[in-house]
C-alpha cells in the first residue's frame, strides 16, 4: 500500500478513536454533560426572533401536510405583517413547529381559520397554551365563518379545567385568567368577492369563499401590507373567486392534491384489505386542486410566486416529488416553490407596488 494510503488509514483510526473517547467522556462525566446541555438549551430557547417581523411581510410555513402525510405538521401558515402576527389554521403538530422555529407566539394577534376540518384546528389547544405562557396579552382571538363559535366553545370547554389549573398553580401574574381562553370572531364572506375581516394600521386581512363541498362556507384569506400581499387558498378545488382574490398578489399559497398518487394510495389500501380507508382517500379527489390546476390558477391570477402547501399526499422523497410535480413546469414556466415545514418567505414593504424591480421576494 502507498504511503498516502497508510497515512489516510492512520488519520481515520485517530479520528474514530477521538470520537469514541469523547463520547465515553460525555456519557460518564457530569460536568461535560451539564456544559453540553447548557449550550443546547441556549440554542433552542435563546433564539433571536428579530428574523421575523419588521417593515415587511413574513410568511412562515408551520404545517404543510394534509391528513395524508407522516412526519410533517398539518395545515398552518404564519404571517407577520409589520407589527402584527397572524396564524392561518392550526393543524396537528403545528404549534411544535412554531415554537421550534422561535416564532414570537407570545405576541400572537389573531388566528384565522379557513374551515373546521380537523387538520386545520387540531392544535388550537396547544397554540392557546404556548401563546398564553409566553405572554399573550388578551384572549386568543379566533376568526372564522359560521361554526367558529362551536369550535371555540368546544376548546374552551375541553381546556377550561386546564386554564384554572395553570392560574391556580402559577398565579395571576404569570398565567392571568383574563387572558385565558379563545374568543370567537364570526363573519360571513359574500358568495363572490372579498370582505375585510381585520384592519389595523397598514395591515388588512380579507376573506373570500372557496369551493370545498360539502364544507360551507370554506374560506381563503388575503393579507395586504404596504404594497405587498399574500393569499392563502384554504382547501378548495380550482376556484374563480380565489383567482380573483389573488390577482397580482406577490405570493399565492395553494393547496395541492396529486390525483395519480391519491388513486395509487387508495388502491393499495383496498388491495391490503383496508377498503374503508381506501374509499375515504378516493373521496378526497373531488374537493382539492391538482398541481397542474393550481399552476393554471396562479397564471390566471397573474400571481408572482406560487407556493405549494397542504400536500395530499406529502411527497416523502425526491422520486415521489418528481411524480407529484408532473406537468407543472409546462403549465407554469416560471416554476413553483414547494414549501416544507419551516420555509420562510420575506416580502419587504414597497410603496412602489407597480414597479416589479422593487418587488423583492426572499426565500429562506
Ligand atoms: Zn385540509
Ligand atoms: Zn378541508
Characterization of this structure:
The protein is of the alpha/beta class and 364 residues long. It has two domains: 3-44; 49-363, Metallo-beta-lactamase, Chain A. It has twelve helices and 15 strands. The strands form two sheets. An eight-stranded mixed β-sheet has the order 6-5-4-3-2-1-14-15. The protein has a seven-stranded mixed β-sheet with strand order 7-8-9-10-11-12-13. Helix 3 (94-100) packs parallel to helix 5 and helix 8 packs antiparallel against helix 9. The longest helix has 26 residues, at 3-28. It starts with a helix and ends with a strand. The mean pLDDT is 93. Bound molecules: zinc ion (2 copies).
Question: Tags for this entry?
Answer:
364 residues, alpha/beta, Metallo-beta-lactamase, Chain A, eight-stranded mixed β-sheet, 12 helices, 15 strands, binds zinc ion
Quaternary class: single chain
Using the coordinates above, name the CATH class of the largest domain: Alpha Beta
* Proper CATH architecture of the largest domain: 4-Layer Sandwich
> Would you report the number of β strands?
15
- How many helical stretches? 12
Contiguous runs where pLDDT drops below 50 for at least 5 residues:
none
What's the order of the H and E elements?
HHEEEHEHHEHEEEEEHEHHHEHHEEE
Structural class: alpha/beta
Helical content, roughly?
Answer: 25-40%
Question: Order of strands across the biggest sheet?
Answer: 6-5-4-3-2-1-14-15
